[in-house]
Amino acid sequence: MPGAHFYSGGLLRMAYEAADRAKQTAKDNLTDDTLLAIVLAASAAEGFINDVAGTIQFVSEIPGRRTDPSFARILRISGVLASLEDDKAQALSRYLCAGILLDLKDFTAGQEPIQSFRQVLQLRNAVAHPKPVSTEANDSLSKTVASLAQRGLCQPIDDSKRNTMDAETWWVVMRTPAVAFWAVHTVNRVMLSLMDGVVAIGDYKGVLTGWRNWLRKSLEAGKAAPPEPPPQG
User: Fold this and answer.
1) How many distinct structural domains can be found in the chain?
2) Is residue 62 classed as helix, strand or coil in its secondary structure?
């Protein structure tokens, strides 16, 4: 049977490293490493839901596993998630769909951690597909960063500098180490919630449980935990 490589865990590790590095590179509490943490964390989230579906499909190919009734539901769910990816559905929509299929009570639009996850994806898209940034601070991204400022994660835009040559924009003020960690922590929470739901339905020889445990340890430590050893047997 051919093997497979999964990269979402490595991307989450790199995002944690960027967030940790942000504390060292920040000048006046601002650093470009925050942009890296946001992009890497969002990429980890997008890759993770594909990795989950791929892992389930991979396990299902083990002789005798596909006919196991306890595995039938999780296999159908992985098929739906894979189909959403094929249809180019947005990452947030795929996670919300997974939340419904897995009966995840905390996967509700407008509530945490989904609300923060939506904001991480919004910031990542703005970084990956940059456009001119207005100094009026009345667009959706400015409102997102204003909510981060209200939570003490960054400074609000300085209104006294608005429409001056040294005006600050959301692109500037959100580059704090605190925002970097918030982005990675949010993605870790979302990934862990998804894996909790998957493991609750079915597992095979601890393959998925080990993955879930690694996510939990990373979330608790605030950094990527050492890799989980593969299950025996």
Assistant:
1) 1
2) coil
Q: State which residues form the domain around 106.
A: 32-130+184-221
pLDDT digits (tens, 9 = 90+) for 133-151: 776 667 888 889 999 999 9
Tokens read off for 77: 């769910």
pLDDT band at 199 (very low <50, low <70, confident <90, very high): confident
Tokens of 107: 């996967």
Quote the CA–CA distance of 169 and 159 in Å, as a whole number: 10
Write out pLDDT tens, residues 91-130.
898 888 888 888 888 888 888 999 999 999 999 999 999 8
- Element containing residue 91 per DSSP (H, E): helix 91-101
Residue 116 lies in a domain: yes
Whole-number Å distance between alpha carbons of 102 and 213: 18
Query: Considering the domain boundaries, does residue 233 fall inside one?
Result: no
- Give the CA angle between residues 172, 17, 104 to the nearest 5°: 90
Residue 5 domain flag: no
With respect to residue 21, please indicate whether it lies within any of the assigned structural domains: no
Q: Is the pTM of this model over 0.85?
A: yes
